[in-house]
Amino acid sequence: MDVKPIKIRGRLKGGKASVKCLMPHPMETGVRKDLDGNKIPAHFIETVTCTKNGEVFIAADWGASVSKDPYFGFVVADAKEGDVIEVRWEDNLGNTSSGDITL
């Protein structure tokens, strides 16, 4: 798979950072069929981890029900200018991708 980096943007306001991520991924459920009637193998993001300055603050388990190219947004409390926010995913085939932003 051609793994693309996570597109990430953030905005700091009043000690809170609003972070928005776009994660390019096919997110195949494993139940769809191709034009020849063959099942398309499952391929989806299993885990998402978000860190602030290297400390994990979100660790999420995802499944096949998440849509293709998922959008993921969250708010980081107690954020300040210069904080580094990193978002990383790993899929069921062992592929990984990440993106980061300095507020």
UniProtKB/TrEMBL annotation:
Transmembrane segments: none annotated. Residues 10-100 form the Sulphur oxidation protein SoxZ domain. It comes from the Bacteria. SUPFAM superfamilies: E set domains (SSF81296). It holds the Pfam family SoxZ. This is Sulfur compound chelating protein SoxZ. It comes from Congregibacter litoralis KT71.
